Amino acid sequence: MECSASTKTRGRPREFDPEEALASALRVFWKHGYEGASMAELTEAMGITKPSLYACFGNKEALFKKALDLYERDKLCYIKTSLDAPTAREVANRILRGAVKTHCGDSDPQGCMGVISSVACTTEAESIRKEVVARRASSEAAVVERFERAKAEGDLPENVDAKALAQCLLTVLQGLSVKAQVGAERKDLDAVVDTFLTMWPGR
Amino acid sequence: MECSASTKTRGRPREFDPEEALASALRVFWKHGYEGASMAELTEAMGITKPSLYACFGNKEALFKKALDLYERDKLCYIKTSLDAPTAREVANRILRGAVKTHCGDSDPQGCMGVISSVACTTEAESIRKEVVARRASSEAAVVERFERAKAEGDLPENVDAKALAQCLLTVLQGLSVKAQVGAERKDLDAVVDTFLTMWPGR
DNA sequence: AGCATTCCATACCGAGTGGTACATAGTGAT
DNA sequence: ATCACTATGTACCACTCGGTATGGAATGCT
Q1: Do B56 and B80 reside in the same domain of the chain?
Q2: Which GO terms describe its molecular function (chains A, B) (predicted)?
Q3: Helices A18-36 and A60-74 meet at what angle, rounded to 10?
Q4: Do residues A194 and A92 touch, judged by C-beta distance below 8 A?
Q5: Whether A88 and A146 share a structural domain
Q6: Residues B67, B80: one domain?
Q7: Is A170 near chain B, with CB under 8 Å?
């Protein structure tokens, strides 16, 4: 049991690729959130049966967390790389453009999996919400830190509150993902980003 | 059947107040969204049994739409009244402050019922999502119109795109409601609004 | 070949879902 | 008092939920 990349093959070999299956599961969770994704839809998308899923991934919650890992590694990586931009404005630009591209593309589900899963939670699945919120907090902290550096480097005026500005940026980010999920057109979201960047203080 | 305020009382009189019951239902939908709210929790909160609910409100979907009407009338009215503010900046200020107060108060559930219900929708409840999205679109149109007037009146610089600015404002609005729902502190949201208004173009 | 081990498929579990049939109870009109 | 009418409470429906027991199939080791 427990999916791993070990090479010892005693017993009947597994007939599916756990990574491919996880990628399929990710798309289902992304579309419907944690509670909205049923085991039936998950197994069908993954092309495996329920016992195989449970043997390999544990249970629904463990599967979700592994999917969330994959999501952050593959789809949310643009946030971390954006922090390398030379100015605060360019950081904001890259993050927002990256969000529009990721959440409004037509090859992947619309919207942000984190937002979907944290908003769509009945009380009983609150551990999922806490998981998502905790991960988002760490991203937020990184942006705050980056903007404080930007202030020291003169990218941002002295009077701006780095933490508040970072939270404002991420608020727009989450708003964009909501709009994307309920079917906003990409050009409208691009216009929102244009407008927000026009308002952006400093360079 | 069908709840109404008619005065003819042939047959056994109803033992509950439909308006009170609807208000209780609203709080449940607000907390959990359409699909997250179970009939069991609804009936318990409303203090009535399922047959009474179905006789008076039709079914779950009809009950939700009536709750949504009540929500918009009682809780989202600040958006329409905000449009009467003298300047575009004051319109934005009132809308954002109203949102923080409404979605981050401790007497009502956290977050925006519309966002929760439109984001947390499995494919089968898509009619609910469309309903919510359509209502939001009409609000958005009103804000766009108000900002175009503001441009004509000189509140906003000539180079700003009224529609994009309105969408940007509502993007922040939805971002705020997401943050409120997952437990952001009110002072942080106030700081976001402060920052956004500092960036606001024109008067 | 025989064995231990692992995976797959079917069929099932108890609990919860939205929704309803039915008998009973309370009302106004006749 | 009887009737038509409506609300209520119980008990139930078919269905789906996440999760699992079980038997057989496929492998490596001895």
Answers
A1: no
A2: DNA binding
A3: 110
A4: no
A5: yes
A6: no
A7: yes
Q: Which of A39-53, A120-134, B107-121 has the lowest mean pLDDT?
A: A120-134
A133 with B183: Cβ contact below 8 A: yes
Packed helices A18-36 and A50-57: angle between N→C axes, nearest 10 degrees:
100
User: Which DSSP state fits B124?
Assistant: G
The mean pLDDT of B54-72, rounded to a whole number, is 96
Task: Spell out the residues 6+ positions from residue A188 whose beta carbon is closer than 8 angstroms to its own.
Answer: A179, B164, B167
What average pLDDT does the structure give for chain A? 93
Determine which of A159, A182, A189 to mutate to test the interface with B (most B C-beta atoms within 10 Å): A182
CA dist A93 to A73, A137, B78, B152, Å? 20, 20, 32, 30
Whether ipTM > 0.85 holds is yes
**Residue B5 is assigned to a structural domain of this protein:** no
Q: Is B197 helix (H, G, I), strand (E, B) or coil?
A: helix
Residues A102 and A191 occupy one common structural domain = yes
Note whether A122 contacts B: Cβ–Cβ < 8 A. Answer: yes
Domain region containing A95: 75-199
Q: Are residues A87 and A101 in the same domain?
A: yes
| Burial of A54 per CB tally in 10 Å (0-12, 13-18, 19+) | middle
Answer yes or no: do B131 and B183 share one domain: yes
